[in-house]
Amino acid sequence: MADPGGEILAASAAGSVVDEPAEEAPAAPAADPLGTYTGDARRYDELLDRSGSLRPHWEPLIARLAADGPDAAKRGVELARRLVIENGVTYNVYADPQGKDRPWTLDPLPLLISASEWRRIEAGVAQRARLLNALVADLYGPQQMLAEGRIPPELPFGHPNFLWPCHGLKPRGGTWLHVYGVDLARAPDGRWWVLGDRAQTPSGPGYALENRQIVARVYPELIKEMDIRPISGYFTALRENLLGAGAAVPDDGSESPLAVVLTPGPFNETYFEHAYLARQLGLPLVEGHDLTVRADTVFLKTLSGLRRVHAVLRRLDDDFCDPVELRADSTLGVPGLLGAVRAGRVMVANGLGTGVLESAAWLGFMPSAAEALLDESLQLPSVATWWCGEKPALEYVLRHLDRLVIKPTFPNQRFEPVFGRDLSPEARVRLMARLRTRPYAYVAQERLSFSQAPVWRPSATPELAARALGIRVYAVATAAGYAVMPGGMARIASDTAVDVVSTQRGGGSKDIWVLNGSTAVNVDDPHDDEQLARMPVRHDELPSGLVENLFWLGRYAERCEDKTRLLRATFAVRADLQVWDPALDSCHRFGVLDEEEEPVASLFDGEMPLGLPADLKRLAWCAARCRSKLSAEHWRSVSVLQRQLHEAAVVQAEPRETLDRLLLALASFAGFMLDDMTQDDGWRIMILGRSLERMHFLATLLTQVLETEDEPRRGLLDWLLDVGGSTITYRTRYLAAPRLASVIQLLVFDESNPRSLSFHWRAVRKTLVQLAASLGGAVEDVMEDSIHRLSAAGLAPLEDKSDSGLAARRELASALAALELATGKLSDRLGMRHFSHTDLDVKMVAM
Amino acid sequence: VTAKQPATQPAPLRYRIRHLTVYDYGSEVVHSHQLLQLTPRTIAHQRCLAHSLTVRPQPALRSERIDAFGNRLTRLELDRPHGRLEVDAQMEVELLPRAAAEADDTLPWEQLREALRYSAQPLPAETLEALRFRCESPHVRIKATLAEFATDCFTADRPVLAAAEALMHKIHAEFTYAPGETTIATPLMQLHEERRGVCQDYAHFMISCLRSYGLSARYVSGYLRTEPVCMPADADAAEEDDGKLLGADASHAWVSVYAPPFGWVELDPTNDRLAGVDHVTLAWGRDFGDVSPLRGVILGGRAHQLEVSVKVEPLTS
Predict the structure, then answer these.
(1) By the CB < 8 Å criterion, does A294 face chain B?
(2) pLDDT class for A635, splitting at 50, 70, 90?
């Protein structure tokens, strides 16, 4: 029978407002900071006991709040909010001004858990991790649990993440589950209950560390005074797990182990955490196409060649990990990965196939599995769960629909959890028919009244309010068994009466403070939580995919700047038709304005493939993919850019003003590129991209102007200097109205003008020599012929009124066009040499 | 497509089969992983007498293993630039008449459905094996509408094989064989609406109906002797040395249903007949995804042309 606990739980009454005074709650002793905070008879209260007195382990915290007063509380809340934003802790990292990019809220008040209580949680979580590991090993091995009738075969066999190609596979050391997350909630009786297991790629440990680092800055003394256990040991253990015993390193010490964090990429909702975790662990963050499998061995494509990978911490769902053997439509995976795992030449954490454990249906079968697989009784109870595939369970569920939540058994079902009592009579009939047709696809759970804890309710003077919460606790495999992180992430409901907590549904999070409780000194150094941030990524592990994105980051930053200058200079000459026409023509040819559209509307038109809005979006996209190389401030400057353009487009602002502001923001972004980034080979390639883009743009622009029949007029030369960003330099140098020959001299040949062609080709030459020295190979010289030809073109005859002037202008235009081509060729060559090739193609023969 | 009664020769039949797959890539492929299921299974009614698999160009790595369903898998890795890939599978098999399964002697379908249901009791190995093929899988859906489609086949207390045969007749009668109109990505519910497709669609549809009744059914991939013909959409007829047309034969797919006490019984809904000595079995699985003859991931290559040709030749001994 699937019902683990008959004793369970009062259903939570709807609509209770917790922070209204309950009938007989006496005033709390330290009344000051507590304000109107009261307990709720239907819930366990983390802060107050049944009589309304403070639980002892909260006393130091509440005393501190009372001593500090409301102003300090307000400052604390404000500081936490600011740090969250500054660290760029956003739930989705993609810098989209319209929405998805929502700051992820953190309540700075920690959830306190006493030492004795934590010992029970810790032991229960470690046992559960052991159990799940044994269970998944059985499912992909002898399937004893199925044969004995302890577990319904439908649970694995119907689960989309039960991967038949993994059957029979034996991971190194027998470990499938390397990292494990479990959601717990405390019932009114004070016990912690398991709500669900995260056994595939548990998200959140990175957030937990981020929370700790922020809260430690809000309450720096408190965390020391109260002797709170640091959580950094978890990350050290994880790193040890990946690089140490578990990793597929030859015993002879001939190779130093390399582990990577595999992410689906910046469009994933938890990408920030992937980037953050990778940085904390000091491991390269890679996408599928950064890796390649050759002869059952996994390699990272790095700037300096292929580097063997011994362990992969994956944040990619298991069925997507290998398009050869698993989901063929996956473009995110690594072809051949499963073969390398099978050959024992790489460790993948968690093991491919562990996703099968993610279903509420397992909960009810755990006690029996624990007895059979561990010969132990299960320490942590699960919330009462009925898998409807069992006849008696189905009948029970149909009779008690009002008390239950109905959930899908399998993650690929299109079915949102529903509360039986919320259904209309018709919906209820439909649901019952559904349950009868495919009973094994549904799970019913008892509703659980979560415990509540205080949060700061933002207002003029912050007050404490009660919110329901659940906690997520993490464990990591070590040589000595599973180690549980002493802490984790508490997730709070968005309003008082809600018992569904999820970061995707609003709500927020809290740090969890576990008291040390023993008289002994903390074994771990509490400063470790901060110092962890300094584990360096090795230089020779720069993934080619990252390098490629850096190159394009350089190009798009410059491209946006060039196009902004072009547009700004053009809108400035709108009154002068003789200049406006050729300038507008140039804008059309660059694709920044549309011939059919009114110019201002066209400027903000996000649909134009080569328009400024589209390029700014590409810039943000590249920046997102280089997130691990950008500082928080640098990253913020990207969202500033997006926001500025978005706001201007909404009000159709005056174009010159908008473009002025954009140019400033772009200059600040470029400033970070030059002064704020580690100047390694990846950076050099980014700078190379910037220079190549600049040369490409300027050569194209000058070709356009020189190709026309007539010698350019003075107004057009002014415009040209403006677009080229060289007006001031020209004035200081020539003190005269612009002439063609001197404009060309300044924009093409003047080595001291940082916006000239020759300034950039010299920079490119220098960087190519540096790269060749560092990475080997010959220095690329595809530009040299065209530079030579350009240098040979005479400047003097350019202004001749005769045919010789026309011929000289044409020759210069054609030399510039050749240089433009050469920059394209150099860009391709760099791509071939240094980037990962991403034109992956999946082909299947049908029939 | 013509329906035919199963041949009932007592003597074993031998076949020589050649299955040639050629990719012509638009540009060079620099790296490629391929997975092949082109080795016939050895089972009660089938022996593999000879088998060869020739790959051009020579792969850097080639390995074999048996998958969870007992099929032989070949994995290839090619690491030199190549513009063309050729996989030439040649085999000789011997087919014996299959054990007779009396439809009327099979378990009533409701009883079987109950027997396959979870009851917290220990399971015999055969039942556990059958349960692998009773859930949804990537190409198989379980739907009330699919059960409705088959409702006149599943009358009360009907023996399971009789019901499955009735379902096969119904699908054969109501579906139109339409090469080239569907692909492996065509959703099952679209097949239900349009009722047009090729053998893999017939098979997936029939499996879905059976599983929608809580029964176990698996997908069988293999070959069928020359006529009746099941033509693949993309195989052009190509002349071979001996003058016989290649591609007149093709790889084929049909259904196997779990029908105790006879175990697994194979039905070919495309041809409306039980599988017999014309059906050569390569592999079986939950659906096409588990048994596709050749799949792979390549780096580079751009557009490619694919030619598949199959020749099934009876051998006279």
Answers:
(1) yes
(2) confident
Instruction: State the average pLDDT for chain A.
Output: 85
- Note the pTM of the prediction, 2 decimals: 0.82
A779 contact B CB<8A: no
- CB proximity A150 to B under 8 Å: yes
Flag if A845 and B295 touch (Cβ within 8 Å). Answer: yes
Cis status of the peptide bond prior to A323, with omega within 30 of 0? no
The residue of chain A nearest to residue B200, with distances taken between CA atoms, is A847
Encode pLDDT of B13-31 as tens digits: 899 999 999 999 988 888 8
User: What is the token pair recorded at A573?
Assistant: 């000459």
Which chain A residues are within 8 Å of B198, Cβ to Cβ?
847
For the stretch A408-455, pLDDT in tens is 999 988 888 888 888 999 999 999 999 998 899 999 999 888 999 999
By Cβ distance, the residue of B21, B68, B302 closest to A164 is B68
Smallest CA–CA distance from A433 into chain B, residue: B144
Query: DSSP letters of chain B?
Result: ----PPP--SS-EEEEEEEEEEEEEEEEEEEEEEEE--SPPPBTTEEEEEEEEEEESPPSEEEEEE-TTS-EEEEEEE-S-EEEEEEEEEEEEEE-PPPP--GGGSPBHHHHHHHHS--SS---HHHHHHHTTSS-BTTB---HHHHHHTTTTS-TT-BHHHHHHHHHHHHHHH-EE-TTS--TTS-HHHHHHH-EE-HHHHHHHHHHHHHHTT--EEEEEEEE-SSS----TTPPPEE-TTSPEETSB-EEEEEEEE-TTS-EEEEETTTTEE--TTEEEEEEESSHHHH-SEEEEEEE--SEEEEEEEEEEEE--
Q: Choose among A149, A157, A837: nearest Cβ to B120.
A: A149
